[in-house]
Design brief:
2 copies of one chain form a homodimer.
Chain A (H helix, E strand, L loop, with lengths): L4 H11 L5 H9 L2 H18 L16 H22 L22 H12 L2 H12 L5 E4 L15 E5 L4 E5 L7 E2 L10 E10 L2 E11 L12 E5 L12 E5 L2 E4 L8 E3 L5 E3 L1 H39 L20 H35 L7 H29 L11 H9 L8 H20 L10 H4 L17 H22 L1
Parallel strand pairs in A: 1-5, 2-5
Antiparallel strand pairs in A: 2-3, 3-9, 4-8, 5-6, 7-8, 10-11
Cofactor (chains A, B): FAD
Subcellular location (chains A, B): Peroxisome
Keywords (chains A, B): FAD, Fatty acid metabolism, Flavoprotein, Lipid metabolism, Oxidoreductase, Peroxisome
Chain lengths: ~500, ~500
Amino acid sequence: MAKNTQTTLMQKARASGSIDTFELTCLLWGKERIVKERRAAFKRVEKALGTYDSTKLPRCYSETSREDLFEQGLEMGKACLDDMLEHNHEHFVWVTPRYNLVNASPFGHKAVLFEPAMEHNGTEEQKAQWLPLARSGKILGTYAQTELGHGSFVRGIETTATFDPDSDEFVIHSPTISSTNFWPAGLGFSTTHGAVMARLIAGGQDQGPHIFLVQLRSLEDGKPMPGIKMGDVGLKLGYNESDNGFASFDQVRIPRSQMLMTHSQLARDGTFTKDPLLAKLSYSVMLLVRGRMPGIFTVQLAQALTIATRYSVVRQQGLGPADALNTEARIFQYKHQHFRLMSMIAKTYAMFFGSRVCDDQYNELREMQSKDDHSLLPSVHALTAGMKAYVTSEAADGAEDARKLCGGHGYMSISGLPEIVGALTGGATFEGENCVLWQQIGRHLLKQLDRLQDGEPIEPQVQYLADVEDPNIACSAFGTQFLDPEVQLTIYRDRAHRLVVKAHSAI
Amino acid sequence: MAKNTQTTLMQKARASGSIDTFELTCLLWGKERIVKERRAAFKRVEKALGTYDSTKLPRCYSETSREDLFEQGLEMGKACLDDMLEHNHEHFVWVTPRYNLVNASPFGHKAVLFEPAMEHNGTEEQKAQWLPLARSGKILGTYAQTELGHGSFVRGIETTATFDPDSDEFVIHSPTISSTNFWPAGLGFSTTHGAVMARLIAGGQDQGPHIFLVQLRSLEDGKPMPGIKMGDVGLKLGYNESDNGFASFDQVRIPRSQMLMTHSQLARDGTFTKDPLLAKLSYSVMLLVRGRMPGIFTVQLAQALTIATRYSVVRQQGLGPADALNTEARIFQYKHQHFRLMSMIAKTYAMFFGSRVCDDQYNELREMQSKDDHSLLPSVHALTAGMKAYVTSEAADGAEDARKLCGGHGYMSISGLPEIVGALTGGATFEGENCVLWQQIGRHLLKQLDRLQDGEPIEPQVQYLADVEDPNIACSAFGTQFLDPEVQLTIYRDRAHRLVVKAHSAI
């Protein structure tokens, strides 16, 4: 690399660090083996895409039309799938090699929503028939729940699946414009099959939303199947590499066997049966994605902060704190630049390790649910709702602040920051709107306090509500005692307790 | 228009309003005549561009490559200039017909920086020679101050203008990569002339930054003049209709007469003279743009809030506060949606009228400066710094919140919101980085308190620092008295006084 003031400043900064970065990376991702395998996989895919040479500007900064970006997303998604199939790993199930949420490609719903929807809701027979096709990429699926007029409010969904006992088929139909399926990843041009949420109508009875497997496109020529109108929703603030799409169904027929029937069943004679307890399981697909978002968003925030930190180390501007006239100061030397970066980096580590707890709790829930124990559902729901809302807010605001810390250069696309900010700001909305999720974690906490006051048992996660003796007595630590994690934990518990009690008494 | 649930809800909402919107518009823009003339001008330009029919999607949502957007910006800028010349008005000096800052076209610096730089710094002879060419569009100018390595820190600028007494010329030169001129609007492909900031070197002496008029491109074929390397800075978070550019000068010669010489002069024999008092005038060009930004950013925030309000009136989601099962609620009925919209709309009106004070103060400063009275400069500098930082922050955050209030639909480009947010977030950086400006208004206020405590006179704008008798006595109003503007003003004065005193004693 050419030697100039900036490269010299960067080398100096790097040489002055005392942290073993590889050791830290292994700590973050759990095992040295995982880190090495991930890096090897990232390298193979970047090489396959011709983007491994980081001294060359990636195509996305010169070929910027909607069509160009979609093509790049398609190439990225296919290269990732090919690599996972060939090398038998799952490193790109959730993220692209650039740590974008996998939504950033037309393969966005394949392994994180379509296949789990099948796994959680399909019968053994259905799973045996469809999962091998989906996993091997012979069909490409999307999870089609949201409609033009209906977002996360599933009960409002209008699409119907009417049982026709004569032909033993369902008729999938979009009765209004507002019932048009809207947003599913890859629906625009790419996906062949959809797990479509529709109201089951049998014998004139509306049995509420259920999931139906619908073939959307011909496997021969990719054209929409008869009766389905489809297209792209258009340019977005981010994720333009994916063809989030719309679909409208005009009396589309599918065999009865394509309703996912683990939790509810429709018999040949039109008899409907439902296990209300098992129905809770279908909700856990939403929890899966919501629970994984904190970990992914935290890493994208870390990317933004890394860019801003590097920039701050090499960018010189003004006379600096020393008011020295002979050279301009590196902007990292300014107190407000330093403080904003450092406090956000600290928060990012905290959120990263917090997201691990989210993952573990979700895995435990699934493990227990497989043994018919659903008792963890309320607390995992509350935890993922709170973590998703908190981390996506902090990540979007933090990345935007990192962008501002780079001044005009952060406004340029080649800084990478506008794309990161654009992707992160979407997180406040999808997989549960944050304001709604805040209300859900709030309701859960207030309910736990109710239970405590009524002498009923509470969730182990909020045991602190019972443990704190007097919320009005301040923490008695002094000086360096504040560095003790136990003291810090006590402070957080006290604070959480005080705030929950305050909110509870204010209502 | 087709009649459906949404159009019906909108008609109902509009019919229920009690405000005369035209009267309100006239109040906002000052006079009925102005409103009518503006609207007529907007209509003519939109018609000329073929975008007047608002039921058709504008080109910017389908033709989205960098080249397409630049072409659209060029057409918009030219249509605006043609209309102003033909109909003799100034409605598009600062904004496009879509209320974007004029930066959004390659004509971005013409009337707001290039011509004012000439007016403020050129001699009568220079103005007579160049202003008619600039104003009529025979040449297209840009204000070229920022360099790749140097933003708002003018003293750090590296470009040199070395006087050659033999030929009576200046040699304009970019000695390093970091001295490359960077960012000026239209510099990429469009502008023919630049008001270039460069260090004046005469007789081996560095006399600091001065402004030089440099021809950048041939008026015949638009090609760069010999010795000048130019291009576009690339894709940005916003303003992609403009070719913000870079330029590097390799020993480019211009006649001595092209240094703007009102405040400093270089004689034929190389003698340098400078009027330190008059030199303050050159700074007022920066104040001009900074002072106008609050008004423009406020209107763009108002656009975002208008979109979000309309959406909230027609979007139905969930069961609503009444938990009524027969119909979904309009999201405007939810308390948090209602509160966020209403409080931001109120703030927007306050900032709009506040920006008027900014304009008036700037005009008064210019009026007094024309009579050699520069006494208003410190207070106008502080006012514009504070207003610019406050309004651009509030506008960017408010528009992003408006975008979130529209859920997934706010993530789509056709909502108009991503473009508004992208443009507004740039405002934290250009024309003075907000963190730097906060420090400047802070320093001004603390200095005024120093003066007060030393028994010296203070600026009339901060008279409240002297007037409040005891900052510890709370406002004694009750109930509806809080609706009295005088009471509200007292509260704001008390609060400002208390905060300034607190900050002063903390340092």
